[in-house]
Specification:
With 92 residues, this protein is mainly beta. 14% of the residues lie in helices and 61% in strands. The protein has a 6-stranded mixed beta sheet, covered by helices on one side. β5 and β6 form a beta hairpin. The longest helix is centred in the first third of the chain and has 13 residues. The relative contact order is 0.23. The mean pLDDT is 94.
Length: 92
């Protein structure tokens, strides 16, 4: 949480929009409760105040997802996240 702005925005496209550090913290708690057993990062790219990462996740319940997260940083060093846009697709 120390690496996000107070007014962080997380748009999980087609699902929900999370705004503010408190709501972001709650969303992270829910994500942790999903008990991921594997995260595979395929690519991570940064340039200036933007970055992106894509890959797949697998939960202990057998659910798998492909994802792409696009980040906007609050500074050019890329140490503070201001906004995240997530594209998530369930895979079989």
């Amino acid at each position: 949480l120390s690496n996000v702005t107070e007014d962080i925005r997380w748009n999980i496209v087609g699902d929900q929009l999370i705004e503010g550090k408190d709501d972001f913290a709650e969303a992270l708690k829910r994500l942790k409760a999903s008990k991921l057993e594997q995260v595979t990062i395929q690519h991570a790219v940064t340039h200036g105040k933007a970055g992106a990462v894509n890959g797949t996740t697998k939960s202990k319940n057998g659910m798998s997802h492909a994802f792409c997260d696009v980040y906007e940083f609050g500074n050019t060093k890329g140490t503070i996240v201001k906004e995240i846009t997530s594209f998530v697709i369930a895979i079989k």
